[in-house]
Description:
Layout: H1 3-15, H2 29-45, E1 56-60, E2 66-70, E3 76-78, E4 92-95, H3 96-99, E5 100-104, E6 116-121, E7 126-127, E8 130-131, E9 137-141, H4 146-149, E10 156-159, E11 167-169, E12 177-178, E13 182-187, H5 193-205, H6 221-225, E14 228-231, H7 234-281, H8 295-311, E15 324-327, E16 333-337, E17 340-343, E18 357-360, E19 365-369, E20 381-388, E21 397-398, E22 403-405, H9 407-412, E23 423-426, E24 435-438, E25 443-444, E26 448-453, H10 458-467, H11 469-475, H12 485-490, E27 493-496, H13 499-516
Parallel strand pairs: 6-12, 20-25, 21-24
Antiparallel strand pairs: 1-2, 2-3, 4-14, 5-13, 6-9, 7-8, 10-11, 10-13, 15-16, 16-17, 18-27, 19-26, 20-22, 23-24, 23-26
Amino acid sequence: MNGKQLKNSILQWAIQGKLVPQDPNDEPASVLLERIRAEKARLVKEKKIKKDKNESIIYRSEDNSYYEKFLATGEVKCIDEEIPFEIPQGWEWARINTIGISQLGKMLDRGKNIGQEYPYLCSINVYWDGIDLSKIKTFKLRDDELSKYRLHKGDLLICEGGDYGRCCVWDRDEEMYYQNALHRIRFYCGLFPIFYKFVFELYRNIGYIVGQGQTIKHFTYESMKSIVFPVPSISEQKRIVKLLKEVLFLVKRYDKKQDALNYLNERINVKLQKSILQEAIQGKLVPQDSTEESASMLLERIRKEKQKLATEGKLKKSALTDSIIYKGDDNKYYEQVDKKCLDITEQIPFEIPENWVWVRMGQIGDWGAGSTPQRGNANYYNGKILWLKTGELNNGIVYDTEEKVTQKAFLDCSLRMNKIGDVLIAMYGATIGKLAIVGKELTTNQACCGCTPFLIYNWYLFYFLMANRDSFIKKGEGGAQPNISRVKLVEHLIPLPPLKEQYRIVAQIEKLFEQLR
């Protein structure tokens, strides 16, 4: 259970009356609500508030159903479906307009507002953990507006938009006002505002508070009036809040520890995965089998396969120019290309088993990048050919793409068709080194390079590329737009194991990765 889940559980217990025991000596909530109604009647008589035409009493009948009686009309209706949970005996349910007076803040209108400048709060100042006073703005208020929009200590402020329903209690004596991005609730008869802050937090977390609107959601006054709120005695409200503050402080510490543990676990998993991949491509993950076809023999078969493809016109003859990398008697590594022989010892990152060979990646696959058909050309898009962008590389198998291009786009732009089983790698920007295996024939944009492997196991190439992502990122640095380019890819060295060993390596990688999940 993470910190958020634990906090929600504790809030649920608190607001349902299960966190602290009830005290039979407490004033019943029904008596408290009678005092509130008397207080409201007095304020109406003194013309300090308007009479509430929708004032109601919520009660539970002998049939165990909940009913709401509207005092102005005498109308009674069953509201069982509106009750979110059961509450203890001695508690009551009430609408927000029964227990407090709610009002939106001052409308901002720089062109029309007149008066002197005063500081005000808006939604960017109100958070669950407190009021943020680091970004206080001012607006103009007339003298006759001051009392209407001035905050009193104990006012509950609720975000009307943005993270709608987010709220906090104004707990200061200093002069401050508020604008209409906030609801202000001023409770009657000493109701504990912090208790209702926790009620709102629970309601928001469990989806009981719902925003209105298609794009930007708003928590309107009508929405707030439609919600029922639990009313315990004031004494119990204070006991609940006192214990909640103590417990939630510990939950916050627990959450930080949990986040640190999750981060540590994630980092350990990443490091373990990297270690597994490094062991794999160095020939240390599975044992070698001397009876198997060697990698040099596999490489000779690859050369013959490439010659065959070139003869059939399926491969450019330039792809037949291969090099031979070998270890000399002086323990140095050399690369033979035609009649040239170069010492490449410094390019060799580690030693490999005797039956493995070093090769350039261009020797073991046909590599090619994609292209982006001209945007705005109606003849190029909304076709049936899958067209992949690097953001869609998922380090797994890709079966579909967000966009499709037409056959005309494919022909006009000389797009490369990547076949099922091809390996894809991102070459540009922040996605450098991201990978995928083609699950359904597709083409790509120019930031993605595809490889059709020659006789080698595509998943071995996939995991080799994954193991070398940091190296590719480093190779891509230095320009305005980081990139590794097709040229850098085909020149990159890859240790090639025997084919059967490639399959054993991949099986072991996937077995170990599964254990890390």
